[in-house]
Amino acid sequence: MVIQIDSREKARAIRKIVDTFDQKGIQHFVSKLHVGDYMNFDNPRLIIDRKQNLTEVASNVCQGHRRFTDELKRAQEIGVKVIILVEHSNQIKSIDDVHQWNNPRLKTSSKAVTGEKLEKILKTMERKYDTRFLFCDKLHTGSKIIELLGGVSGDR
């Protein structure tokens, strides 16, 4: 397995992910991807787009909605399936758990999206753009990326 990492990923933010790739003997290199953040060269039709938490997702699907959906449309046009992997606490295990999320921005903005509303938006996006929102704890992101891209993951 050889994983391409998008060059727009910040080295500091993905240090643990790269360490996991190294520990598991996964070859990897950095180069710009057309969409998403991680791709297995053996299966270029599947891309992982990593999000650091639900706050980033909420920002992407609300404030940055057009840019975000344009990227998903581009992926559809070229026949690529995108999995959005959200690094959040282990309390959010699936899209069905998003409704219980307490958006920290609700304290400062009445326009901030609630967990219930975000869950509905994400489910609509899954249907409309043939994508999936999956969740993992930050400690396991590297292993989860390997697993999703078709490799073997030793820990969860």
UniProtKB/TrEMBL annotation:
<dbReference type="GO" id="GO:0004518">
    <property type="term" value="F:nuclease activity"/>
</dbReference>
<dbReference type="InterPro" id="IPR006166">
    <property type="entry name" value="ERCC4_domain"/>
</dbReference>
<feature type="domain" description="ERCC4">
    <location>
        <begin position="2"/>
        <end position="90"/>
    </location>
</feature>
<dbReference type="Pfam" id="PF02732">
    <property type="entry name" value="ERCC4"/>
</dbReference>
<dbReference type="InterPro" id="IPR011335">
    <property type="entry name" value="Restrct_endonuc-II-like"/>
</dbReference>
<protein>
    <submittedName>
        <fullName>ERCC4 domain-containing protein</fullName>
    </submittedName>
</protein>
<dbReference type="GO" id="GO:0006259">
    <property type="term" value="P:DNA metabolic process"/>
</dbReference>
<dbReference type="GO" id="GO:0003677">
    <property type="term" value="F:DNA binding"/>
</dbReference>
